[in-house]
Model the fold of this input.
Amino acid sequence: MLGWAALSPVSSRCVYGGVAELSVYVAASARGKGVGKFLLSELITQSEAINIWTLQAGIFTTNKASIALHEKCGFRIIGHREKIGKLGDHWMDNTLMERRSTVVGL
Done:
């Protein structure tokens, strides 16, 4: 497997029905080969086909490559969360990013 991408609803409340959180993973052996851009671009296309107008992502702040990929695909940084996740014994900060659709929810 080279990678995967998934969407999850951010809330069960109907007012947020067009907002989803995304996850993208690329295997170490496939990084830097366009897999992430393909997966993220396809996820954007498919999300708009099901009327999702906002995608959001929480990315470890240390993952500069993923932040750059999201920016290339139209995401913007909207904030940071400190010590929100724990990886082993280390607390991790997140960079919060979002992308508003240019075709859905206008």
DSSP finds two helices and five strands in the chain. The beta strands are 3-9, 19-26, 54-60, 76-87, 90-100. Helices lie at 35-49, 64-72. The CA atoms of residues 64 and 95 lie 10 Å apart.
